[in-house]
Amino acid sequence: MNSLLVQSVRAGLVTLVSFSTPAFAGLLVDADPDWKESAAEMPAAPQASGLRAFDIGSTSPNAFFVDEQSVSVGEDGVVRYTLVVRTPGGAENVTFEGIRCATGERRIYASGRKDGSWVPMKNSAWQPISVNNYNRPRAALAYDYFCDGPAGPRDRKHALRLLEQRRDLTRPFGGR
Question: What is the pLDDT of residue 31?
């Protein structure tokens, strides 16, 4: 086989793999060196009436919700929301988080208490969104709902519309 053809096929395969794997999304876009994160205001405690269930795309005994009242899109492009995870035994974990679509990163700002107050996380830093059991809800929110590659929702109203229906990755352009 012609070596130029082999090199072209190899380059095409590498490109295809890179663009088809959401875990690499943050590596495809250069971080904006002038980007500054806006201050994150802690939302009110989530109310049961405002929780929207979402599908994480894998089997889990837990139920996953986003508090619609907490969803915001900052001028910094960060989608912020309250994540509520309920176990079959009745335990509930509440966290206030952010997703930065442009870099494929997530951040947990605070953990919620039963009395509705927030406890800021000690190690609240931006981290790549990895698709593992712990981060699966965040990966689902980023790649199946909020982010279209490096593009995030335009505003709160758009983010809520995106949250209504999971992206169908079997349809062209991830149609909804």
Answer: 65
